[in-house]
Design brief:
The chain contains 12 helices and 12 strands. It is α/β, with parallel strands linked by helices and about 350 residues long. It has an 8-stranded mixed sheet, with helices on both faces. The chain has a 4-stranded antiparallel sheet with strand order 2-1-4-5, with helices on one face. The two termini are about 35 Å apart. Bound molecules: adenosine-5'-diphosphate (ADP) and magnesium ion. The site of magnesium ion has 3 residues, from helix 1. It is an enzyme of class 7 (translocase). It catalyses: a dipeptide(out) + ATP + H2O = a dipeptide(in) + ADP + phosphate + H(+). Its main location: membrane.
Length: about 350
């Protein structure tokens, strides 16, 4: 079994007008030391997925079905005490906004020491020494002086370095980073991403990187998931998906990358916008924006409009698309006729 194994995860928000299903049938796994990217536009369910991995979904949200096995144990069925041990200790999370993690009234050193002492039986002196070492690892200038500074005394980039140091504090197996650089200046984004990548590689820490930036995912991750309206519509090895995307939505995302456009031409943006979860279209949620509902011969693929697509295996990946299923079916039949 993989280190992390998510199966048929179903997360809902109980709202007055009824349940909103934020994650539907989400399944994926992560091997030890592996880096997985999760991409999708705003509202696709990326943060809900990140929070559920640590069983941190707050009311009115709840995990309505499925399982999240970490190191063989199901997080959805664990006591709060056991969960607290795993959070931080074995899996840590980096949020887009550093102030979600940092306490404004404690110095950096106080927060790091407090965190270490909550999980390990060590002296303050030892905890400070470990904290200093972690600040050195994230290449922060004058690390010793930082221990006595408060979050507001640091720049955005420095704060995110401190956050990475805190995420690494207890030597976790997995770091979940939810748009870790989105709030930073563009010039600093690449620096922080390179640092995170380097630290995960050196310390053999698994990374789940959530971003709306397909370019970053293609550089950092070995495998990727593409999310659309609460579902994973395509997943597989990053190289394969970038070079040969199967789902029309993934194709659209890749065609919209600036480096894919001919210089001087306009970017090929996918028309329309992602539907909201409480108002999903029938059939495939992407069908109103999809150029493949109509076949090349002019006939309409009714399944796209009427049926939610299941998953089909394509190469080393999985795709939820009727058109891909139909193409694979067509390739399969002649092959069998030969025998
Ligand atoms: N606290 C909440 N209450 C109700 N619905 C929520 C809440 N948080 C998220 N959702 C629903 O889940 C969807 C996905 O949210 P999110 O995971 O934050 O998207 P993103 O991919 O941008 O991170 C939202 O569009 C919304 O419909
Ligand atoms: Mg988000």
């Amino acid at each position: 079994m993989a280190l992390l194994d998510v199966n048929h995860l179903d997360v809902r928000f109980a709202l007055r007008r009824g349940d909103v299903q934020a994650l539907r049938d989400v399944s994926f796994s992560l091997e030890r030391g592996e880096r997985l990217g999760i991409v999708g536009e705003s509202g696709a369910g990326k943060s809900v997925a990140a929070f559920s991995l640590l069983n941190l979904i707050a009311k009115p949200g709840y995990i309505a079905g499925g399982s999240i096995h970490f190191d063989g144990r199901d997080l959805t069925a664990m006591s709060d005490r056991a969960l607290r041990h795993i959070r931080g200790h074995r899996m840590s999370i980096i949020f887009q906004d550093p102030m979600m993690t940092l306490n404004p009234v404690l110095s950096i050193g106080e927060q790091m020491v407090e965190c270490l002492k909550a999980h390990r039986r060590i002296s303050t002196r030892e905890a400070r020494a470990i904290s200093l070492r972690k600040l050195e690892q994230v290449q922060i200038p004058s690390p010793a002086a930082r221990l006595d500074q408060y979050p507001h005394e640091l720049s955005g980039g420095m704060r995110q370095r401190v956050i990475i140091a805190i995420a690494l504090l207890l030597d976790p197996d997995i770091i979940i980073a939810d748009e870790p650089t989105t709030a930073l200046d563009v010039t600093i984004q690449a620096e922080i991403m390179a640092l995170l990548l380097e630290l995960c590689e050196t310390h053999h820490v698994g990374l789940i990187l959530i971003t709306h930036d397909l370019g970053v995912v293609s550089q950092v991750s070995q495998r990727m998931l593409v999310m659309y309206a609460g579902r994973v519509i395509e997943q597989g090895p990053t190289r394969e998906i970038i070079n040969d995307p199967q789902h029309p939505y993934t194709q659209g995302l890749i065609n919209a990358l600036p480096q894919m456009a001919t210089p001087g031409s306009r970017l090929n943006q996918i028309p329309g916008s992602m539907p909201s979860l409480d108002n999903l279209p029938s059939g495939c949620a992407f069908h109103p924006r999809c150029g493949f509902v109509e076949r090349a011969d002019g006939t309409t693929r009714r399944a796209c409009i009427d049926l939610v697509p299941g998953y089909v295996t394509s190469g080393n990946g999985r795709v939820a698309c009727h058109m891909v299923a139909e193409m694979l079916e067509r390739e399969r039949i002649p092959a069998e006729e030969i025998r």
